[in-house]
Amino acid sequence: MSGLRSAVFYQDPKAALAWLEKAFGFELAMLLEDAEGNVAHSQMEFGDSYVMVGQEWSADHKSPKSVGGKNTQTVHIQIDTDLDEHFARAKAAGAIIDAEPQMQFYGDKTYRCRDPEGHIWTVSQTVQAVSREDAEAASGLKITGWR
Fold first, then answer.
1. How many structural domains is the chain composed of?
2. CB pairs under 8 A, 24+ apart, for 14-17?
3. Which candidate in 26, 62, 95, 130 could, as Cys together with 107 as Cys, close a disulfide (CB 3.0–4.6 Å)?
């Protein structure tokens, strides 16, 4: 199966697994543990996708919590259910809200939050079909490759 997957690293991956389930409704699909019970690898499913959740394991594989909150990527979650309900669930689970739900020029409603270790998650629900021309007019950007 072709596709693109992301991996995120945590100081406490077991706590992250529980939080991602509670906040976003992800489901644990795979968990590999070593003899001491440490997470060697895990996968959490959401729709047809999954994210790999792991423990910090090298100088280049760190949680934002270990590097002053810095991120080099964000993970995007595309949902087809009510975004406001999803937002409320994440907020109730302790998500740190970076951006409240708002409409975007491309027809999606989005919010952005951080998990307890500082990973940035953007959640989006398409609520309106928007043409490339309308998106360009609303944003002031020249857009190539609109779908």
1. 2
2. 14/39, 15/116, 16/53, 16/115, 16/116, 16/117, 17/42, 17/44, 17/53
3. 130
Same domain for 84 and 131? yes
Q: Which residue range forms the structural domain that includes residue 105?
A: 74-140
What's residue 72's pLDDT?
A: 86
Does one domain contain both 37 and 80? no
Residues 51 and 106 in one domain: no
Which residues, in sequence order, are CB contacts of 102 under 8 Å at separation 6+? 109, 110, 111
CA nearest neighbour of 119 among 32, 15, 39, 38 = 15
